[in-house]
């Protein structure tokens, strides 16, 4: 066991669990206290060991740390014989997920741009390979959605839940796919994932599928931005086209066969900022993966808008 692992094991023993703050298909999230600071503790079901292992591995990737990616503290396994608990300890963000936040908060243009830009910065960092002896592989998320993006105190976002991530190392030209039975969230799946035409042996298709999901997340944000005193209520993408727990078939019909996309309010066209955001999201959720924007292009486009609105990042 190396020094880092040893330090992590010690941390896990020192954490005092305070209260449960969330529950997902992988397990539970608790708010805990460590050295007087609040931390988030993700406790995985034993059946989700592959997700825990993958997420731990991705967070420990060299050069992974970034202000718009959830800050990793430690991982640990606590167990007695037949009973094990898998822990992942990260920074705690009391505003919760983007999903929780948008349900109860409305945004002005500047708040919208700050959220969208910071999320794009996180995605861009994930997607980008950093070359060198201490390099970082390119990483595709594969389960981007508003529930997997957290809101920081300063109104920016960070990307979380990397249990499904895929890594790519250009040296070996290998796509490293997790040994995981879990799949992404059907509502956010790109057309090529739904109709199973995505080439699993290449890395680029996974990146392009992330971009499609990102377009839907921008749509969720934009609806909650007030212009001319008008704002839409919070809804999930395709809320009016599929059931609340859609099947593959429901999603495939809407996204691939009918080629529908989330509805857009008329007011968006009469506001300069929302019009630009609308153009951006449409270029993210294009049916053809090759015509979607890259994360870097999204980041640069939003950076220009941030600058023109004089948003403090």
Automatic annotation (TrEMBL):
ATP binds at residue 42. Keywords: ATP-binding, Kinase, Magnesium, Manganese, Membrane, Metal-binding, Nucleotide-binding, Receptor, Serine/threonine-protein kinase, Signal, Transferase, Transmembrane, Transmembrane helix. Gene3D superfamilies: Phosphorylase Kinase, domain 1, Transferase(Phosphotransferase) domain 1. One of its GO terms (biological process) is cellular response to growth factor stimulus. GO terms for cellular component: plasma membrane; receptor complex. It is an enzyme of class 2 (transferase). This is receptor protein serine/threonine kinase. It comes from Neotoma lepida (Desert woodrat). The lineage of its organism: Eukaryota, Metazoa, Chordata, Craniata, Vertebrata.
